[in-house]
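Quick one - first record:
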Amino acid sequence: MDDNDIIRLYWDRDERAVAETSAKYGRFCMNIAMNILADHEDSEECVNDTYLKAWQAIPPQKPAFFQAFLGRITRNLSLNRYNSRHTAKRGGSEIPLILDELCEIVSDKEGTEDRVLRKELVNTIDRFISALPDEKRYIFIRRYWYSDSISAIADRLKRTENSVSVELFRIRKKLRAYLTERGYDI
């Protein structure tokens, strides 16, 4: 069933929408949740919550790119669950490592003015990512959006882990320079 047909089921409030969504995108959503949470039970709950959020959002929303819509919901739910459940480290997750990698670029000191400028910063980063060559953009997005491990990215691209790590370091360095050139204090 294609995405438009699934979205139509949501609009018609047909419960088959959830089953069709699960059949088509369940593994995709589970992969995102597992990369963030590293816990099967928590990930399953986030994926199920994704279906509920989609049910609540459609209608009135009519997502143009259904997979990205579901991925964003899953990612946000998983990050929320990660934050609420990790007062002590449970291990196995890529999130602490990913946050450490990005810490050198994005400051955690955010004042009122910074919050107002957040949307501008997001647009600036989007422009940077859009200008990257396809493979570099793929590496960056797989690491920092989908929370894939470096070894998983290397396997997909048939590259060494070291080459992926070096590429990520170079991209972060270029992003830092790009943001600095545009007046962001990093």
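second record:
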Amino acid sequence: MMDAGNILTQCLSGSMHWANAWVLWLIPVIWILYLAIKKRQVKSFRFSDLSGIKTTATTKVSLLKFLPLLQLTGFSFLLLALARPQIFLKDETIKANGIDIILSLDVSSSMLSKDFEPDRLSNAKKVADNFIDQRKYDRIGLVIFSGEAFTQCPLTSDHEILRELLKNVEPGILEDGTAIGMGLATAVNRLKNSQAKSKIVILMTDGVNNAGYIKPQTALNLAKTLGIKVYTIGIGSTGQALTPVARRYDGTYVYGVANVEIDEKLLSEIAESTGGRYFRATTGTELSDIYRDIDRMEKTTIDVKTMKKYSEEYRYFLLIACMIFGLAAFLKYFYIKPLIN
């Protein structure tokens, strides 16, 4: 908000912007009507001698005549406020990188393995959340899979809802297992009707395809046919890791040491066949770097918007109107009233 001096300068220079400019035409109209009515009401009287007329109430009489003018001025400032005066701040140019992206995330129980701190899934959700935050002008959706696949969030530009849904993802929502073909096919299905120039899937898993009724090769062919690029990420350290091996009746997991097995050959084939890339993340830092690399590679500017920013300054005019109405009310009911009575 600017100070009153700057606002006055803007008004006098004609650089003030009025969002409801048509309201300004009402101001000269009401003044013309007021003057026309006042002219008709003026009458003259002839006195042979003025000595009998009291002059003690001269000031109050003058104020009484001035009162309609004061009220009309207040009403004029009220109309100025209704006209929404705005002061130009700046031009803002936005280059939108419009890409439709589906994140396909493995949520099988093995994603709770402790070779990442605190576990693989927590790291995956954290870097995905940061990635979503960076892609302000893209539509992004979320698919989760384990032994089956489910669309957690369709393509949306409302990233706050998407991030909230991502935060709530946990193992156990779906049947356990690793259905890579299902995870990819479901993601591809969400992009098949997209009109975006660039459509990509980021698929992250820590295992080998061992479930689902859609084979990975079938999903791969579908992605190629629809021109969808797939980036694949294998998450997990090398060697062995503390991994869930069983589940207790209360839902908690029993951990044991197990070999880390990721079908890197399959993930590489999916990525290379669709024009994407395969990445291997053995640490949380590497996983963050991978998402940054993908963010840099996928920049397709499709739109440029120039936005003019204004600040709303109606408050000053509304304040002046209230002050004038307050003064008019004081004069009428407290100062002049005895004269009227």
